[in-house]
Structure formats: structure tokens, C-alpha cells
């Protein structure tokens, strides 16, 4: 790395919120952003553990090689495959986001927190911004928790969340169990389910249903702050559009055969009005920015949830996840 102590990018908060992400902005002509990040890694990590997200602008991080170098700085170990994201090239931890309809809003979530183990950190980088829309709204998990009604908050803290997922053997309305578990051997699938602290059930011979009970709220592993960290809005049936709900009901007579759903940890239903309230709180707490080509967003996956706005035109985002933690 070169010595670039003379480079002093601008640091500033991105909103008036006490949980505001930080913007580190370089001169648009600078070719030394990576060197600066290398020299100030500890300082930026401290900002990240407080602010929850750091947007690096003007550094030209619009290719997977540059993103991989940043992940080497900020991750002790990057994840190369998590079952639903696929690398952009061989022998790299940099991936593409899960495919999702351009015209739809992808609801807020902390990445992979329905699993027993999940990444503590994430990187999002803009290779090519959309013509219209395509922002990545972020919401602070501490602020969301603080703004939930006491009744809702305590119900989730006490009961936790049960994520229920149905897999066909092949890819259909989502990836099949042979894809997600990377095997066609049922005994291997069952062993992996046990390792991942999931119960499992085989239906009609070749359909797999898994159930996993996870916390809705955890303490941050460094600061000890309580964070609302779950994916109820990604999983709850009420979050589907009315048309999609009707389609699912027509396709599957039994609720247990829906592609996925979630309940309280004791198996009881999460009321729809709880879900509406959580959705409103996320919307109240979110902030967003317009991507610029070459932007890179460092995210603490416990402190910040992310979403994705609808968009028009081509949009290319690079992602990388790292530093696994376990419930």
C-alpha cells in the first residue's frame, strides 16, 4: 500500500438521526481510496460499530476485484456461498444479490438472520446504477426496536420467531432443497438440518418442510445494544400482495404447504396488525440515498436492515458477506 496520509476525505452524517450512517467522500479523481481504507481500517470499523453503515463514495469500487480487496480489509473471513447468492466469478467471495422482480419493493431484512449462523458484516457496491429507482434503503435495527409498541416488542422477545419453509426437490417458486443444500441425498439434508438447528419433515416423499426458531432481538456482539434482527416481513404470508396471496391459496390447499411463512416460536400465529405495525415502523425509520457508480456501502448486519426499491433500466450491484456469528 502507498502512503497517502495527505488524502483527507470528507466525513459526514447522512441524516439527523442519532443512528445515521456515515459518508466518507473522496475526490472523484482519487485513485487512492483503497490505500486510505487500509491505513484507517480501525477508525472506520469503530465508526461502523456505532453508525451501523458507512458509505464510501468516489473510490471507484465498481468491479468485483476492488470489492474483494475491501472485504479482505474488513472481514476476518468472507463467505463464498450461502445457498442463495452466487459468485460473480470463480474463486471470489463477491456475489450478485438474489433475483427479485424489478417492479417490486424488497422488504427490509437483516441478511440471513433466519439461519442459526449469519454474517455480521456486509458490503454492497454499485457497479451500475439503475436509470430510475433501485436505491437500497437502510433502517437502524436499534431504532426500529425502540419505536415498536411495547406489546409487539415484548411478544417477539418472549416468543421468538419460527420460520417455516417448504422446498420442492427442484427449483420451483424458489430454490429446491437439492439446490439449497447442494446435495440430492436426503440423509445429508437431514444431517445439515440438525447442524443448522432446524427441524424437518418429508411430505409426499420428496417435499421438505423445515422449521427454525430464532430470536427476534439480540444484543450486538460488540456494543451489547439490543437490535431488532429478524426477517418477519420477508416470511409472513400477510406481506405478500393480495393477488399473490390468492395465487398461493389456489396452488396449495394447506397452509403448511405454502412456500414459506413465519409464526411465533411456539407455533401461534403472528397477528396481521402486528405485521402492519412493524412495516410502518421500518418505513418511519428508513433512510436512503441514490447510488452512484463506484459507491461502496459497509454494513453492520446486526445494526442495520436493508431493502431495495423498485427500479427501471439495468442495475448491477455487487455484494459480499463475512464474519459469521451464531445465535
From TrEMBL:
Keywords of this entry: Oxidoreductase
PANTHER family, per database record: GAMMA-BUTYROBETAINE HYDROXYLASE-RELATED, TAUD_TFDA-LIKE DOMAIN-CONTAINING PROTEIN
Lineage per the UniProt record: Bacteria, Pseudomonadati, Pseudomonadota, Gammaproteobacteria, Alteromonadales
Cofactor requirements of the protein: Fe(2+)
A Pfam family hit: TauD
Highest taxon of the lineage: Bacteria
InterPro entries: AlphaKG_dependent_hydroxylases (IPR050411), TauD-like_sf (IPR042098), TauD/TfdA-like (IPR003819)
An annotated Gene Ontology molecular function: 2-oxoglutarate-dependent dioxygenase activity
Organism: Pseudoalteromonas amylolytica
Protein name, per record: TauD/TfdA-like domain-containing protein
Ranges of residues in domain TauD/TfdA-like: 38-318
Amino acid at each position: 500500500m502507498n502512503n497517502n496520509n495527505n488524502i483527507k476525505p470528507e466525513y459526514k452524517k447522512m441524516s439527523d438521526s442519532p443512528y445515521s450512517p456515515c459518508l466518507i467522500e473522496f475526490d472523484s479523481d482519487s485513485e487512492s481510496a483503497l490505500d486510505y481504507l487500509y491505513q484507517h481500517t480501525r477508525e472506520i470499523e469503530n465508526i461502523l460499530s456505532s453508525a451501523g453503515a458507512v458509505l464510501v463514495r468516489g473510490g471507484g469500487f465498481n468491479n468485483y476485484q476492488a470489492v474483494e480487496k475491501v472485504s479482505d480489509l474488513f472481514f476476518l473471513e468472507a463467505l463464498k456461498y450461502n445457498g442463495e447468492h452466487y459468485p460473480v466469478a470463480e474463486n471470489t467471495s463477491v456475489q450478485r444479490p438474489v433475483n427479485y422482480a424489478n417492479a417490486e419493493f424488497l422488504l427490509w431484512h437483516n441478511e440471513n438472520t433466519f439461519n442459526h449462523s449469519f454474517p455480521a458484516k456486509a458490503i454492497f457496491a454499485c457497479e451500475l446504477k439503475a436509470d430510475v429507482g433501485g436505491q437500497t434503503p437502510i433502517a437502524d435495527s436499534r431504532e426500529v426496536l425502540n419505536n415498536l409498541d411495547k406489546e409487539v416488542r415484548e411478544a417477539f422477545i418472549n416468543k421468538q420467531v419460527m420460520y417455516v419453509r417448504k422446498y420442492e426437490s427442484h427449483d420451483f417458486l424458489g430454490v429446491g432443497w437439492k439446490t439449497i443444500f447442494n446435495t440430492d441425498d436426503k440423509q445429508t439434508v437431514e444431517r445439515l438440518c440438525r447442524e443448522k438447528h432446524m427441524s424437518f419433515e418429508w411430505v409426499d416423499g420428496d417435499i421438505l418442510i423445515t422449521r427454525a426458531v430464532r430470536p427476534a432481538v439480540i444484543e450486538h456482539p460488540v456494543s451489547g445494544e439490543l437490535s431488532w434482527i429478524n426477517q418477519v416481513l420477508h416470511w409472513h404470508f400477510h406481506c405478500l400482495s393480495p393477488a399473490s396471496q390468492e395465487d398461493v391459496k389456489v396452488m396449495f390447499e394447506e397452509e403448511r404447504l405454502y412456500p414459506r411463512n413465519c409464526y411465533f416460536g411456539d407455533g401461534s400465529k403472528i397477528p396481521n396488525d402486528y405485521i402492519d405495525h412493524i412495516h410502518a415502523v421500518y418505513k418511519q425509520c428508513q433512510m436512503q440515498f441514490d447510488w452512484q457508480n463506484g459507491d461502496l456501502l459497509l454494513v453492520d448486519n446486526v445494526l442495520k436492515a436493508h431493502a431495495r426499491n423498485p427500479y427501471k433500466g439495468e442495475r448491477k450491484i455487487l455484494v459480499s458477506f463475512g464474519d459469521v456469528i451464531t445465535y
